[in-house]
Amino acid sequence: MSTLPDVVEHWFGADFSALHPRLQSLHRGGGLLRGPVDISYGSGVARAVGRLLAWRMGIHDAGAGNMLEVIIASDASGLHWSRRFNHGPVFKSVFQPSGGYPNGYWVERSGLITLWLQVTVQEGAWHWQQKRLRLLGMPLPGWLMPRTIAHKEVVDGNYVFSVEIRFPALGKVLAYCGTLDLCAEGR
Fold first, then answer.
1. What is the pLDDT of residues 2-29, one digit of tens each?
2. Count of beta carbons in the 10 Å neighbourhood of residue 149
3. Which of 19, 23, 47, 117 has a CA that sits 20 to 30 A from residue 126's CA?
4. C-beta of residue 173 within 8 angstroms of C-beta of residue 42
């Protein structure tokens, strides 16, 4: 995959400099991240839903001691993320930019789900704000739509992130977070 360093930088425009320099570098040239993650589920029905969702993402173990590998790259079709939990199957997403920061958004496609995500930058960290979701191409109404709460930042030179997926009436169904090492950068 060829690297197009300006996909993310172009979308942010002058505000790209508000991101932490390590996030800027990672999104300019791509890279490989690895490290431990904690995986947790809700309880009751939320746990069952979370385990099903986790299985679709290649996550098979809850708790601490899990490992995650993320490869980030870009090409003309957008920003590509390949995630692998515990050397299991690869879970891929393609993020396509629309508009520009701060009013634009990214469209994430992964399997049966399409998300529309806006971004805010706070103290150098990247925060995703889910705005819409389609399942099998059909929009879900707000009262039925799961919510993804996610962010990424750099702390002491490491990539720190968290993702939480919440369903209406169930609350948290799945969450994973961790501190990853930047093993290799593109370019």
1. 444 588 999 999 999 999 999 999 998 8
2. 15
3. 47
4. yes
* Cis upstream peptide for 141 (omega within 30°): no
Q: In a 3-state reduction of DSSP, which class is residue 128?
A: strand
Helix (H, G, I), strand (E, B) or coil at 2: coil
* Residue 35 phi, psi (nearest 5): 165, 180
CB atoms within 10 A of CB 47: 17
CATH of domain 6-185: 2.40.128.20
**CA 70/CA 27 separation, integer angstroms:** 13
Q: How far apart are CA 16 and CA 23, in angstroms?
A: 10
In degrees, rounded to 5, the angle at the alpha carbon of residue 178 between the alpha carbons of residues 8 and 1 is 35
Cα separation, 12 vs 15, in Å, equals 5
The pLDDT of residue 156: 94
Q: Are 7 and 74 in contact (CB under 8 A)?
A: yes
- Mind listing the pLDDT tens digit for each residue in 62-82? 777 899 999 999 887 789 999
Section 120-132 average pLDDT: 96
Place of tokens 């809700």: 42
Q: Are 142 and 130 in contact (CB under 8 A)?
A: no
